[in-house]
Specification:
Strand content: 5-15%
CATH architecture: 2-Layer Sandwich
Number of helices: 10
CATH topology: Muramoyl-pentapeptide Carboxypeptidase, domain 2
Number of strands: 7
Radius of gyration: 28 Å
CATH class: Alpha Beta
Largest sheet: 5 strands, mixed
Shape: globular
Helix content: 25-40%
Length: 242
C-alpha cells in the first residue's frame, strides 16, 4: 500500500471514531419534553356527561366569551373557573344554530356572541352565596338555586352580537346591567326617552328577530336573555344540572 493510501485510511478511521457531540440544551427525549399535560376540567366533564353539546361544535360561526369564567362580570369573581366552552341541551343548541344561520343570511360579518349558557346548580349556589345582601334583594340579581334557573337545565342563553373582527354591536348596556335600559320590552319608548339610541334599538331588534324566528322566547327584564324552553317544561322532562 502506498504512503498516500495509508494516510487516507488512517484519516477515515479517525473520522469514524471521533465522538459525536449533541448541541447544547437539546434533550434526546424531545417528544416527551414538549408534550403538554392535558388540562382536566371537571365542571366541563360533568356537563358533557349530562348529554349537553358544545354550541361551537354545532355551528363554528357562533362566538363564545363566558363572562363568569372571568372577573368581567357583576360579581367581579370567576364562577366557572376552567370552563371556556358554552354548552346547551341538543334541542337548544340546534335552535341557536338556526339563529346563527338566519343572522349570517342578513350579514355574513355578524355572529352571535354567547356570554352564558348551561350553568350547573353548584355554580348557581356559588353565585347566590357570593352576594352578601338580604334574601329579597338577592332575588333581583340571581335566581334562587333551590328553585333552579332555566340556565341550570341548559335551555337558557345570554348573548349579544359581534362582527368577525370581534367588535361588539352597541346594545345600550353591558351584560347583567340592572337599570331601566336593560329592559327588553317597550324599547321604542326608551328611544323616545333617550335612554336608548335608534342604533341600539335596531341592533337589539335584529338579534331578537333571529332568535325569535329560531324558536326562542325573551324575558322582559334582560335584553340579553333567551329561553329555548320554559322552566316548567324543562323540569318536567330533564334533570337539573348539579
Amino acid at each position: 500500500m502506498s504512503i498516500k493510501n495509508t494516510i487516507g485510511l488512517l484519516l477515515l478511521i479517525a473520522a469514524c471514531t471521533t465522538e459525536v457531540r449533541q448541541p447544547e440544551n437539546v434533550h434526546l427525549n424531545q417528544e416527551e419534553a414538549i408534550t403538554p399535560t392535558p388540562v382536566v376540567c371537571h365542571l366541563e366533564d360533568s356537563i358533557r356527561d349530562a348529554g349537553l353539546v358544545d354550541v361551537q361544535f354545532v355551528n363554528p360561526d357562533i362566538r363564545v366569551y363566558l363572562r363568569y369564567s372571568t372577573r368581567n362580570n357583576f360579581l367581579k369573581k370567576e364562577m366557572y373557573g376552567c370552563l371556556d366552552h358554552a354548552y346547551l341541551q341538543t334541542m337548544a343548541a340546534q335552535k341557536l344554530d338556526t339563529a346563527q344561520q338566519l343572522l349570517s343570511g342578513v350579514d355574513s360579518n355578524l355572529h352571535l356572541l354567547v356570554w352564558d349558557a348551561a350553568r350547573p346548580r353548584s355554580v348557581q349556589w356559588k353565585m347566590w352565596n357570593t352576594l352578601q345582601m338580604p334574601f329579597n334583594e338577592k332575588k333581583r340579581f340571581v335566581s334562587n338555586p333551590k328553585n333552579g334557573s332555566i340556565h341550570n337545565y341548559g335551555f337558557a342563553v345570554d348573548l349579544t352580537l359581534c362582527t368577525s373582527s370581534g367588535e361588539l354591536l352597541d346594545m345600550g348596556t353591558d351584560f347583567d346591567y340592572f337599570g331601566k335600559a336593560a329592559s327588553a320590552s317597550d324599547e321604542w319608548e326608551l328611544v323616545q326617552e333617550k335612554v336608548l339610541t335608534e342604533e341600539q334599538f335596531d341592533n337589539r331588534k335584529l338579534r331578537r328577530n333571529v332568535m325569535l324566528k329560531a324558536g326562542f322566547t325573551t324575558i322582559n327584564s334582560e335584553w340579553w336573555h333567551f329561553n329555548a324552553m320554559s322552566r316548567p317544561e324543562a323540569s318536567a322532562a330533564y334533570a337539573i344540572l348539579e
